[in-house]
Amino acid sequence: MLRNCGSQQRFDYYCDAVTPGYQGRQLVCIERTIDFVDSREYFGVQSADIVAYLHRRLNGTTGSSKQTQRACQRVYKVLESSIVSARKWRP
């Protein structure tokens, strides 16, 4: 149903309805209007992009080289104590 929708339409839908899955729930804490910005212009967004990139490189299926994996691990280790939780939401 939502495969051809953009991110904003999906957020709106999940705020009004419920997320899919065994224990679906409404996303009541999500700000309805999400502005997608260029991370080069916003330090906080750029920081979040870096953490998400490193997390994905270390936990995803990117097939990176051992050297790249070690470099990502070194940087991620510095940030790891600041990360409260890391889980993937699949709408």
Structure explained in plain terms:
- With 91 residues, the protein is an all-alpha fold.
- The longest helix is centred in the middle third of the chain and has 17 residues, at 43-59.
- Helix 2 packs across helix 3.
- It has three helices and no strands.
- The chain folds into two domains: 1-36, no CATH class; 37-83, no CATH class.
- Helix content is 46%, strand content 0%.
- The protein has helices spanning 7-16, 43-59, 66-80.
Number of helices: 3
Structural class: mainly alpha
Fraction of residues in helix: 40-55%
Instruction: Give the DSSP E fraction (strand runs of 2 or more residues).
Output: under 5%
Order of helices and strands: HHH
Low-confidence stretches: none
Q: Main sheet?
A: none
Q: Care to count the β-strands? A: 0
- Average pLDDT, to the nearest integer? 76
Query: What's the gyration radius in Å?
Result: 16 Å
Q: Overall 3D geometry?
A: globular
Distance between the termini: 11 Å
**What's the number of structural domains?**
2
